[in-house]
Amino acid sequence: MQLTVWTYEGPPHVGAMRIATAMKGLHYVLHAPQGDTYADLLFTMIERRDARPPVTYTTFQARDLGGDTAELFKTAAREAYERFKPEAMIVGASCTAELIQDDPGGLARALALPIPVIALDLPSYQKKENWGASETFYQLVRTFAPKVEGAAPRTPGERPRCNILGPTALGFRHRDDVAEVKRLLSRLGVDVNVTAPLEATPSDLARLADADVNVVLYAEIADVAARWLERTHGQKTIRTVPIGHNATREFITEIAALTGVDPAAVLDDANARLPWWSRSVDSNYLTGKRVFIFGDATHAIAAARVASEELGFEVVGLGSYAREFGREVRAAAEKLGLTALITDDYLAVEQAISELQPELVLGTQMERHIAKRLGIGCAVISAPAHVQDYPARYSPQMGFEGANVLFDTWVHPLVMGLEEHLLAMFREDFEFNDAAGASHLASVHPSAPQGTPEVTASEIVWSKEAEAELTKIPFFVRGKARRNAERFAAEHGLALIQLETLYDAKSHFAR
Fold first, then answer.
1. Which residues contact 476 (CB under 8 A, 6 or more apart)?
2. Does the 461-510 domain belong in CATH 3.90.1210.10?
3. Which of 364, 369, 330, 324 is CA-nearest to residue 129?
4. 65 pLDDT tier (thresholds 50, 70, 90)
5. What's the rounded Cα separation, in Å, for the pair 5 and 347?
6. pTM value?
């Protein structure tokens, strides 16, 4: 077992809580000791929800372990039903309560409550948060959307209908993504039958079979349920995630092909600014910028495509903590000539970033902290995220407007890098303080990045004069300048990099 300060995912009962909090009319009774109730803060403080999650904890203490903790659970479940009167209830145990093996499912069945009760078997020591959310949603869909014989046929000429699957509570921009995708579907003439789990009730899940197709926005949450709907109800599934301009056009085309609508009016959106910018002279500034990408599978794969196809970046690293989707991430990395980094160890991610020295990092809040320490620009593209990544404004990641948001968010750190370069040109002016550091990197001083990879087996030493000159180079190309100088020194058998060596390397690689 490895002790860690940060974690990309919580235990699976947190994933179940994300489903319960996203839905309406569903209550979660969680067998948990005092101390395992911290998850409430995730929703009320980070996502800024105005109501606490629909979760009842048994909250047993150490002294209760000598008594009947099973009776505590039964009392909590009975009181939760009487107080909240939900349409349905899910029951389970936290990672700590799992050890006492009280069987919440069996205890809930013994109560014979007059509502459906779904028992969750979430192995806390083998699985994690996203898997817990996926399994919970799958069990709910199986319970409330069984195959019904003799279902009523669709009326001829009726508008096509689709389900939107995957958005949850505490999801990265899920609410705004749903609004943007609904806008696209409405313009296409496709009605949204059910959006789930976000804002859906258990009775809404019973209507899932009424749709013609399912749109899976977040495979980590909805892929398993969508595959069950395919097998059980014969529904087609759209797995193209409309993140980025190109992917949005593919999404629209795929929807149109499956539903028989005309996509022409929607394919060319006048509000999509990214294609215009890509044709502009200013876009040349970002061509070839080296970017490292890490996050959940959905956002990491999409970001790699947008970065390489639409912004002209060079993707030098791609990875994900979503082990269940490692195959998909590896396939996306192979298309870029890379080996994917599949890990939930943030220290391994930090080491990769330090070695690659990219000019931009696209990742989670963990990568933001790592990039800040290394003096590299960063944009958050995936959960886990902090409160500032749940903005009050409308800020989707999907659709044409989402492409605009991505452009603004990703380009900003690099453009600010150009601004720092202009300031550096006037660093001797009395109005500027060279010790202040990069303005957009808060307290980070523009010192040389740490963790530079070794060029040869023998250690290369920098003179004080050369190190001082290196700090005058803009931070967003400083890593490349350091690598080039060390490579030049190694090729010429120089163990010491002096000021002249730095200038010679610059001239050599400028040819």
1. 359, 360, 376, 377, 414, 417, 420, 421
2. no
3. 324
4. low
5. 10
6. 0.81
Q: The tokens of 414 are what?
A: 């690099």
The catalytic residue positions are: 282
**What is the tens place of the pLDDT at every residue in 390-399?**
888 899 999 9
pLDDT computed for residue 433 by the predictor: 52
Domain 274-421: which CATH number of 1.10.3720.10, 3.40.50.720, 3.40.50.1980, 3.30.530.20? 3.40.50.1980
The CATH homologous superfamily of the domain defined by 12-143: Nitrogenase molybdenum iron protein domain (3.40.50.1980)
Average pLDDT over residues 333-345: 96
Give 261's contacts (C-beta < 8 A, 6+ positions apart).
160, 188, 189, 190, 255
Residue 504 predicted with pLDDT over 60: yes
For residue 65, the Cα-to-chain-centroid distance in whole angstroms is: 38
Amino acid at 177: D
* CATH placement of domain 161-267: 3.40.50.1980
Cα separation, 56 vs 53, in Å, equals 9
CB count within 10 Å of CB 257 equals: 12
pLDDT at 430: 47
Q: In the prediction, which pLDDT does 397 show?
A: 95
